[in-house]
């Protein structure tokens, strides 16, 4: 099962096999109070959110995983949440999380799956397309970038590394750069807020196919966003609401159109970069069950928008994460599609009309 935009399928299976210990005494862990003991900057670096935001998040989800008592040295809700945030801030090793928080690896596995599901359930509240009253402001925000009219969002795909999922046809998850991945479609506004995330397609799927089968395409074609545009790269098909750059601009107005398009579309690339640097596990990839990987993608999208809503700055990378390595992994996750040679003359006329009547006057 996988996330299908705004629909969620929850799997209660664990990410690794339970560790069953026969004949060994039970190990009791002494846990550090990281929330109280760490200063604000260190906490921000290690958990990627400020203490105020973590407390706000805990209020929203703790009912899903709090215990009725503290028998058997149970892990408190705050420690469960910090364990998961620490996992998102790491290179994807559960052993690192278990050592840091003070718990067994099998316990860390169960907590990552459980708390991730709780955060992902907040998706409809934090990741949503613009309402009718927000469209003009969104267009104004994009217009301020480089004077491109009517744009409310930019679309692109980014690849999240996974281990081979096994099964009957694992090769469908191998992308054109040779590694296994999920191709995640994201749409963001000019302020780098995610408006829509589709996390269910294997790495061999091209970006255009994902958009063609997405709910957001149907919503645009049902005229839910009148007089509004999306921008995407040349791997997509041109539509009367979706514009791509010209492949061979010759005239001045064509070059101006392409320049404005590229500079406006840069926001989605920046959004992916901010998202993955805040949660480096997205750059490194995950050695978890496929369903849990999809849930982590959705959960971190929720947290990215929560951080934007709380006006948080981008945190510095943790000390155990290499900046150059993360930037390199982010860069190679941008697997551009082969340009789509669109034969829809009528739709191309729409783009040509915009270039002729608007960009010729700039």
Q: How does this model look, in words?
A:
- The protein has 362 residues and is an alpha/beta fold.
- It folds into 2 domains: 90 residues, no CATH class; 234 residues, no CATH class.
- The protein has 15 helices and 5 strands.
- Helix 4 runs antiparallel to helix 5 and helix 6 packs across helix 13.
- The longest helix is centred in the C-terminal third of the chain and has 27 residues.
- It is globular and about 65 Å long.
- It holds the Pfam family DDE_Tnp_4.
- Keywords: Hydrolase, Metal-binding, Nuclease, Nucleus.
Helix content: 40-55%
Separate helix tally:
15
Strand order of the largest sheet: 3-2-1-4-5
Structural class, from secondary structure content?
alpha/beta
Beta-strand percent range: 5-15%
The span between the termini is: 50 Å
| Overall structural domain count | 2
Residue-averaged pLDDT, rounded?
Answer: 87
Low-confidence stretches: 1-25
Note the run of SSEs as H and E.
HHHHHHHHEEEHHEEHHHHH
Total strand segments: 5
* Radius of gyration of CA atoms, rounded to a whole number: 22 Å
Largest sheet: 5 strands, mixed
**So what's the overall shape?**
globular
């Amino acid at each position: 099962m996988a996330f299908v935009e705004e629909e969620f399928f929850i799997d209660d299976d664990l990410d690794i096999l339970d560790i069953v210990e026969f004949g060994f005494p039970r190990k009791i862990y002494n846990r550090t109070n990281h929330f109280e003991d760490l200063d604000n900057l260190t906490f921000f670096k290690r958990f990627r959110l400020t203490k105020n935001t973590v407390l706000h998040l805990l209020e929203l989800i703790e009912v899903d995983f709090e215990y009725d008592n503290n028998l058997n040295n149970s892990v408190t809700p705050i420690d469960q949440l910090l364990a998961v945030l620490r996992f998102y801030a790491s290179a994807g090793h559960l052993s690192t999380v278990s050592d840091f928080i003070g718990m067994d690896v099998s316990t860390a596995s169960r907590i990552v799956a459980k708390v991730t599901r709780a955060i992902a359930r907040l998706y409809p509240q934090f990741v949503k397309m613009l309402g009718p009253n927000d469209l003009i402001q969104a267009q104004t925000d994009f217009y301020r970038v480089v004077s491109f009219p009517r744009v409310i969002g930019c679309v692109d795909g980014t690849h999240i590394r996974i281990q081979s999922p096994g099964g009957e046809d694992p090769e469908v998850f191998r992308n054109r750069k040779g590694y296994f991945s999920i191709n995640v479609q994201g749409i963001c506004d000019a302020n780098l807020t995610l408006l829509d995330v589709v996390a269910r397609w294997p790495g061999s799927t091209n970006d255009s196919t994902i958009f063609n089968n997405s709910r957001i395409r149907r919503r645009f074609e049902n005229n839910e966003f009148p007089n509004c545009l999306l921008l995407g790269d040349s791997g997509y098909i041109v539509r009367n609401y979706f514009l791509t750059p010209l492949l061979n601009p010759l005239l001045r107005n064509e070059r101006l159109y392409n320049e404005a398009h590229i500079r406006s579309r840069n926001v989605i690339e920046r959004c992916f970069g901010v998202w993955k640097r805040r949660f480096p596990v997205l750059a490194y990839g995950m050695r978890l069950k496929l369903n849990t990987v999809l849930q982590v993608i959705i959960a971190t999208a929720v947290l990215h928008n929560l951080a934007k809503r709380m006006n948080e700055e981008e945190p510095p990378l943790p000390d155990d994460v290499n900046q150059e390595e993360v930037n390199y992994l982010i860069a190679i996750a941008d697997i551009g599609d082969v340009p789509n040679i669109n034969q829809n003359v009528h739709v191309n006329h729409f783009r040509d009309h915009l270039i002729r009547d608007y960009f010729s006057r700039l």
